[in-house]
Amino acid sequence: MTVTRSSVLLLQTLLLSARIQVSSASGHFELQILSMQNVNGQLQTGACCDGPRDVTDRRCSADECDTYFRVCLKEYQLKISSAGPCSFGTASTPVLGGNNFSLRNAKSNARARIVLPFSFAWPVS
């Protein structure tokens, strides 16, 4: 039996293709909060965080907000909406401070870091 160069190449290709494994990828999305300013001490809706507005100057003055952050990763949206599922994960921080704070020192940084691991194919835009 004569072995030709093309049959050897074909055999090598078949053997190599049998060894090919499907690769998997993983990673993480990370967000680090460094500082926060909520000058008026109010919610996104415009209401005071705690208590009513001062009747003379209409400022929120009863108590500072209890500020934390929540991340919701979802697919691209033309019009951004907080409704609906977080397709790629969600995470939040504990309460980090009041209306204004800075977390630039190393001790506070760990609390202000949100890490969302993922082990799926990231969508192509």
UniProtKB/TrEMBL annotation:
GO terms for biological process: Notch signaling pathway. GO terms for cellular component: membrane. Residues 26-124 form the Notch ligand N-terminal domain. Keywords: EGF-like domain, Membrane, Repeat, Signal, Transmembrane, Transmembrane helix. Pfam families: MNNL. Residues 1-25 form the signal peptide. This is Protein jagged-1b-like. It comes from Notothenia coriiceps. The gene is LOC104966128.
